[in-house]
Design a protein that fits this description.
This protein is an alpha/beta fold. Helices cover 27% and strands 24% of the residues. The chain folds into 2 domains: 184 residues, Spore Coat Polysaccharide Biosynthesis Protein SpsA, Chain A; 34 residues, no CATH class.
């Protein structure tokens, strides 16, 4: 809790996935991605409650090993590939209604740190933002992204391509890192999004940023873990 605001973290860990089978049950150093997320969230000094939401008994049984964790059985209609995570969160908030701020922690980002969770919460509240999202710097210039026309020619996404292809001329651009999403509950229920011009960007520094979506991402995470 901070400034009398009650904070809940939600770990959504659906069973099954298209990109990689049983993604949330994959293990790094013998610990599942779900358990990694649980342990780091419970280290937070500001989060009052942590909820594990899943349609999988295997995943929920992981959560049952932790005394201070709330277990949420996800509804069937919110457990398919087309289900929107915001709808899942709002359903949870309608059940557990006495929270002011919600923190979304997806298991597929195993390198997040509790100190970043707390610092992101503090900065969002201090800056009077409605939401906050962790970001990381791109190592490429998105101004060079393009579409391909039916004839095969390049079509820039922006009005025109940059003139210089030199790496040193690249500006600074950022992407969502996927580590942490935070919102005031009233805002999320009303707007159903974490992104707006009232969103704090929290730059993640000095840590790996890997969102495990396929087998290649998972292999990269295993290699990264050996080096840190």
């Amino acid at each position: 809790m901070i400034n009398k605001r009650k904070i809940v973290a939600v770990i959504p860990a659906r069973g099954g996935s298209k990109g990689i089978k049983n993604k949330n049950l994959l293990k790094l150093n013998g610990i599942s991605l779900t358990e990694i997320a649980i342990k780091e969230s419970l280290k937070s000094k500001l989060i009052d409650s942590v909820i594990l939401s899943s349609n999988s008994n295997k995943i929920l049984n992981i959560g049952r090993k932790f005394k201070n964790l709330i277990i949420h059985q996800r509804k069937k209609n919110l457990s398919n590939d087309k289900s929107q995570i915001v709808d899942v969160l709002i359903d949870i908030l309608n059940t557990f209604s006495d929270y002011d701020i919600i923190v979304l922690l997806q298991p597929t980002n195993p390198f997040r740190r509790s100190k970043d969770i707390d610092e992101c919460i503090r900065k969002m509240i201090k800056g009077k933002y409605q939401t906050a999202i962790t970001v990381s710097e791109l190592d490429y210039d998105p101004r060079w992204f393009f579409e391909i026309s039916p004839s095969g020619s390049l079509k820039p996404i922006l009005k025109k391509f940059p003139k210089s292809t030199n790496r040193q001329d690249k500006g600074k651009f950022f992407k969502f890192s996927g580590n942490i999403y935070i919102s005031h509950v009233k805002w999320l229920k009303s707007k159903k999004t974490f992104v707006s011009n009232r969103t704090l960007s929290y730059l993640v520094k000095n840590q790996p940023n890997i969102d495990i979506d396929n087998s290649m991402d998972f292999e990269l995470a295993k290699l990264t873990l050996k080096k840190i």
